[in-house]
C-alpha cells in the first residue's frame, strides 16, 4: 500500500463524513438559531427550550436521511473491503 493510496482513502473517508454529517448539522444549527432568536425576543432563558427542539430536529433528519446515510456508508465500506486484494497483491 502506497502513501498515495492511504491519502486517497483518507480523503474519501473525510469527504463521506462531511457529506453525511452536513444535513444533521445544518438542520440543528438552523433550529438552534431560530430558538436563540425566539429566546432573545421573549427574554426566556430556559435550557430545555434550546435543547429539546434541536434533539427533535436531529431525530427527524435521521429518520428521513438515515437510509441514504447508511447506504453511503455501506457502499464506502464495500468498496474499501473489495479493494483489499488489489492492495495486498
TrEMBL record:
It is found in: Cell membrane; Bacterial flagellum basal body. It is a multi-pass membrane protein. Keywords: Bacterial flagellum, Cell membrane, Cell projection, Cilium, Flagellum, Membrane, Transmembrane, Transmembrane helix. Coiled coil: none annotated. The chain crosses the membrane at residues 12-38, 50-70. InterPro entries: Bac_export_3 (IPR002191), FliQ (IPR006305). Belongs to the FliQ/MopD/SpaQ family. Role in flagellar biosynthesis. This is Flagellar biosynthetic protein FliQ. It comes from Verminephrobacter aporrectodeae subsp. tuberculatae.
Amino acid at each position: 500500500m502506497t502513501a498515495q493510496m492511504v491519502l486517497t482513502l483518507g480523503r474519501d473517508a473525510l469527504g463521506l463524513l462531511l457529506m453525511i454529517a452536513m444535513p444533521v448539522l445544518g438542520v440543528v444549527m438552523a433550529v438552534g438559531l431560530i430558538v436563540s432568536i425566539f429566546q432573545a425576543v421573549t427574554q426566556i432563558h430556559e435550557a430545555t427550550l434550546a435543547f429539546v427542539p434541536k434533539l427533535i430536529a436531529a431525530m427527524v433528519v435521521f429518520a428521513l436521511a438515515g437510509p441514504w446515510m447508511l447506504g453511503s456508508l455501506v457502499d464506502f465500506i464495500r468498496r474499501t473491503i473489495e479493494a483489499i486484494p488489489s492492495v495486498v497483491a
